[in-house]
Write a structure and sequence with these properties.
This protein is of the alpha/beta class. It is built from eight helices and 15 strands. The protein is globular and about 55 Å long.
Length: 332
């Protein structure tokens, strides 16, 4: 197993990340305006905030904007981005293959350096309160460390709310705010250890077959991959297996080494592991091959936890707010 420490920072900064999921990808300027709003007002860029990456998928009509900042500034930065998003995205006319309930669909906050997940949860709860205060019609459901005292997972909340199938959200009851307005929809806000997004495309148009493979690797199923949630979607004429890859407590993973199934890291002395993207791709390739088809490629939506921490420290040390322009955003 590879292990990388994320428990201390040479910069003396306490850093966290948000992978802001918005229901827009086809209007590139709108996505970039939302990303730039996270950096500061009236052209005044905040030195402790950076947008590391923008990943936009036009088929899904969904973008993921990776915002990193000191924990003290992250909430304000996300709020500014969300205010811009709610002004620009109308769920009444939004179309896309990917499930979604909100113009700002998901706001997960993850610890990177010298920050605990509980503190990220407190930032998430405060952000949720500010959103419903500042955005008329905004309504929020909470998950993870923001959902006290139950701390229900994102998957649990999405199942309860019908996120995977529902587009009529008028009857939903949010945790904060009034009944969801048709323009804004319902927004998920929460905190947890880092969740990576990794998608693998299979060379087939058979959605049922894709769902079979997604089910086989899902961590909730027998012989599935621990911490992996998977769905299959039509994508650019093929089928994509879209995976959320959770970080989990390390004890059960320490025995694995040579196959690089697990990657390990620490935050504030707490040990976490996750299934590596290479191993996920290899397992999907094997399952596809067993069914007589191949795979086309893998897309990592942003970063691994270690990459995110390293890029965050570099960008903030160098005061590079628009780091994504250097790295190159991904627009599909």
């Amino acid at each position: 197993m590879k292990k990388i420490s994320m428990s201390s920072s040479r910069l003396g900064l306490r850093l966290a990340a948000c992978l802001l999921n918005i229901s827009e990808a086809r209007r590139k300027h709108i996505v970039e305006n939302i990303a730039n709003a996270a950096l500061g007002k009236n052209g005044q860029k905040h030195p402790e905030v950076s947008v590391l990456n923008i990943f936009s998928d036009q088929n899904y009509n969904r973008s993921v904007i990776t915002i990193v900042a000191s924990i003290d500034e992250l909430g304000n930065s996300i709020l500014a981005a969300c205010l811009e998003a709610f002004q620009s995205i109308d769920m009444q006319i939004q179309e896309g293959i990917h499930p979604c309930l909100g113009a700002v669909d998901l706001i997960p906050i993850y610890p990177l350096t010298d920050v605990g997940v509980e503190e990220c949860g407190a930032v998430a709860r405060s952000l949720a309160e500010n959103l419903v205060r500042h955005v008329p019609g905004c309504s929020v459901f909470l998950f993870g460390e923001a959902d006290l005292p139950e701390k229900r997972t994102l998957v649990q909340r999405r199942k309860q709310l019908g996120w995977f199938t529902r587009r009529d959200f008028s009857a939903l009851e949010p945790d904060l705010g009034t009944a969801p307005a048709r323009r804004c929809g319902l927004t998920g806000v929460g905190a947890s250890p880092y969740v990576m997004n990794c998608n693998v495309t299979i060379d087939s148009q058979d959605l049922a077959l894709g769902r079979e493979i997604a089910s086989a690797i899902r961590g909730s199923n027998l012989n599935g991959l621990k911490g992996v949630q998977a769905m299959a979607f039509p994508h650019e004429g093929k089928i994509e297996i879209a995976c959320n890859v959770e970080s989990f407590e390390d004890q059960e993973a320490t025995e694995t080494s040579d196959d690089f199934r697990y990657m390990a890291y620490s935050v504030l002395g707490n040990q976490f592991s996750y299934i590596s993207p290479h191993y996920i791709e290899a397992q999907i390739k094997k399952l596809a091959s067993d069914r007589g088809i191949g795979t086309i490629g893998r897309a990592l939506i942003g970063f691994t936890p270690q990459e995110c921490k390293t890029c965050a420290e570099y960008a903030i040390k160098k005061s590079i707010g628009e780091f994504w322009k250097i790295r190159g955003g991904v627009f599909m």
